[in-house]
Write a structure and sequence with these properties.
Two copies of one chain form a homodimer.
Chain A lengths: L1 E7 L16 E8 L3 E2 L2 E10 L1 H18 L4 E7 L1 E4 L3 E9 L2 H18 L2 E8 L1
Parallel strand pairs in A: 1-5
Antiparallel strand pairs in A: 2-7, 3-4, 4-6, 4-8, 5-7
């Protein structure tokens, strides 16, 4: 399984992809910053990443998940620093022969991302 | 839940979307035509749709699923006629506050699409 991981302080630009002849399912997920935290309107979230570890942990998670749910390619881009409301903090693309394994990998990946990867929301900016 | 459905003989162009302030998850799925059927290499699949029913059934399915898994918006575009290998026959976008309900809706929608909607693969074109 091809794995591409990027951590960036810049707005996420999903890379152009040309699926292979045996790709039957392309699944893309974007996690956006929402405009409120509880009752409070916000304009941005601040993400912090521990870069030396985050890329390594992301790759380990994806390699394990790829063994359980064989897909063809996974692309993960996580933004850090200040991310404005309405913009993605994370982009994930999964390419697979069928949709079942792609959905399973994406769902499991997002769970593990939240608990195991050293990327944190450290502050919010009130409106 | 906003529902947009299109059936088209033309290549699918995912519409531009501007998520609302409370959208936290955007999920997109493309189902592509793969380059083989069993052991046989193909160059395209021919889809046939019974248009008077297909749009109606798609809407009914989405309305029911939206009640079970409340999302903000769903866009479905299904292509018919000849769809070349590597191109999408279907595009689905789900926008929701959190990813859980979006994933649940997408997964269930794709299952029901295959069994309940009058759209069929009627022929394949050998290479």
């Amino acid at each position: 399984m091809d794995i591409a991981i990027a951590l960036t302080p810049d707005p996420i630009q999903p890379p152009i992809h040309s699926p292979g002849r045996e790709t039957g399912a392309v699944l893309e997920f974007q996690g956006l910053v929402r405009g409120s935290e509880g009752e409070v309107a916000i304009s941005a979230l601040q993400y912090e990443v521990y870069e030396p570890m985050a890329g390594k942990v992301l790759r380990e998670i994806l390699e394990k998940l790829g063994a359980a749910h064989p897909c063809q390619a996974v692309t993960v881009i996580h933004r850090y620093g200040l991310v404005p409301v309405g913009e993605p903090a994370i982009f994930v693309r999964v390419e697979s022969a069928h949709r079942g394994e792609g959905l399973a990998l994406l769902e499991e990946f997002m769970k593990q991302l939240k608990t195991a990867v050293p990327i944190w929301k450290v502050a919010s900016v009130k409106c």
